[in-house]
Amino acid sequence: GCLPGRLALLPLALLCLLVLALGLPVLGAPPRLICDSRVLERYILEAKEAENVTMGCAEGCSLGENITVPDTKVNFHHWKKSEAGRHAVEVWQGLALLSEAMLRSQALLANSSQLPETLQVHVDKAVSGLRSLTSLLRALGVQKEAVSPPEAASSAAPLRTVAADTLCKLFRIYSNFLRGKLKLYTGEACRRGDR
Fold first, then answer.
1. Is there a domain that residue 59 lies in?
2. What is the number of alpha carbons within 13 Å of residue 15 lying toward its C-beta?
3. Which Cys residues form disulphide pairs (predicted)?
């Protein structure tokens, strides 16, 4: 009597195993997955690889327009003195802006026939990586920390931005953002969570 019911669950169980094996659902990921340095290092490596590929293309693979991206410069002295809420705002806004920039470059590349397909693959990976990182940071609580203290949000300086007009510059900024502000913030947030 129970066998048909169990067989009905088999496709669902197989789907869950497949999805887990592929590592796709970051939404169901443990909240502290980003605290495993190997996870962030994988995204950094992908960004650096894309940056290296675009360095070799003619004229830095022009995007044909300026795309606004976060300024990745970090004043370490100022960073250490400022509050975690301010860091969260800066990282969250920077990630959102980078996501918009990658999506825009993805659209521009889709309309361009002269750029190699390998560049499209790197942009697609970056779009996917930014979505995953956003989910991982949401699981860590950065979104709540970025919006919870109203005084931190009102006193936070507006996000500094720069313009990227080539894929090379876009990927350099993406790589620097991950290696800089994002890595600093996640390191702090993970240490706070360990206490």
1. yes
2. 5
3. 35-190, 57-61
Written as six digits, the tokens of 78 are 């100022």
Q: Give the pTM.
A: 0.77
Encode pLDDT of 7-22 as tens digits: 444 444 444 433 343 4
> What is the number of domains present in the chain?
1
Residue 17, domain member (yes or no)? no
Answer yes or no: is 9 within a domain. Answer: no
Look up residue 48 and give its two tokens. Answer: 């650096």
Interatomic CA distance for residues 152 and 142, integer angstroms: 14
**What is the spatial distance between Cα 50 and Cα 55, in angstroms, rounded to a whole number?**
9
Look up residue 157 and give its DSSP letter: P
Helices 37-55, 183-194: inter-axial angle, 10-degree rounding: 180
Distance CA 165, CA 67 (A): 6
